[in-house]
Design a protein that fits this description.
Layout lengths: L1 E5 L3 H13 L3 E5 L2 H10 L4 E4 L8 H10 L6 E5 L4 H10 L3 E4 L4 H15 L6 E4 L2 E4 L4 E4 L2 E2 L4 H12 L5 E2 H8 L10 H14 L7 E4 L3 E4 L6
Parallel strand pairs: 1-2, 1-3, 3-4, 4-5
Antiparallel strand pairs: 6-7, 7-8, 8-9, 10-12, 11-12
Length: about 230
């Protein structure tokens, strides 16, 4: 999952991004409203975490502009402005949630998970495809009751594929959602991670869930036993 952190306090921005990455998220960071609009126009984000009081354009202005353009990306305001009027204004402009500084990172992560559930029409942290279960809250993955250990990146790729069950995802689409602008890895990195996932998710099971669509990309779905 790819997150944009828009926060002009650089230490706060760095800490949020560091914690997000530790949880397996891909995080881009910017420090003012105009820069945020440039990022949002370039990349499709899953979540935007945004301060209100920023240079050049404030968070309210950024939110108003992207909503007018039809961008429905969930936005969480992270701010010291805690009056009822401020919260009402943000929500009326189209914000999805609002958390006041200072905050606990566990609460921020819980709110991100809640926003993700709403985005994908789920009421639970669990995603299920056949006998495969992924829990976003505990980072637990199991199949047929067997616990499967995944790295943070493997978990993120699997989560993205399960959220898009039955949809063919190109390598470029997966890479865009899993790595940030700083990524400079090898060109076949997605293929490498898909191979890792197949070993862990499919190798010991009769029904294979990860499938290759030649010339296009990969899809996760239930299929006849082979």
């Amino acid at each position: 999952m790819r997150v944009l952190v828009v926060e002009d306090e650089r230490d706060m921005n760095r800490i949020i991004c560091k914690n997000l990455k530790a949880e397996g998220y891909s995080a881009d960071s910017c420090f003012d409203g105009e820069e945020a609009l440039s990022y949002i126009e370039t990349v499709s984000y899953d979540i935007i975490i945004m301060d209100i009081m920023m240079p050049k354009k404030n968070g309210w202005e950024v939110l108003s502009e992207i909503r007018k353009k039809g961008n429905t990306t969930p936005v969480l305001f992270l701010t010291a402005k805690d009056t009822v009027e401020d919260r009402v204004k943000g929500l009326d402009l189209g914000a999805d949630d609002y958390i006041v500084k200072p905050f606990h990172f566990d609460e921020l992560m819980a709110r991100i998970r809640a926003m993700t559930r709403r985005k994908y029409g789920s009421i639970s942290n669990e995603i299920k495809v056949g006998d495969l279960i992924l829990d976003r809250g505990t980072h637990r993955v199991e199949r047929e009751g067997k616990n499967i250990e995944l790295s943070a990146k493997e978990f993120s790729i699997l989560e993205y594929m399960m959220q898009n069950t039955g949809i063919v995802l190109s390598r470029e689409k997966i890479e865009e959602h899993i790595w940030n602008y700083e990524y400079q890895g090898i060109s076949n990195m997605i293929d490498v991670y898909i191979r890792y996932l197949r070993i862990k998710i499919d190798k010991d099971f009769e029904t294979k869930l990860i499938h290759t669509v030649r010339g296009v990309g990969y899809v996760l779905k239930e299929k006849e036993k082979i």
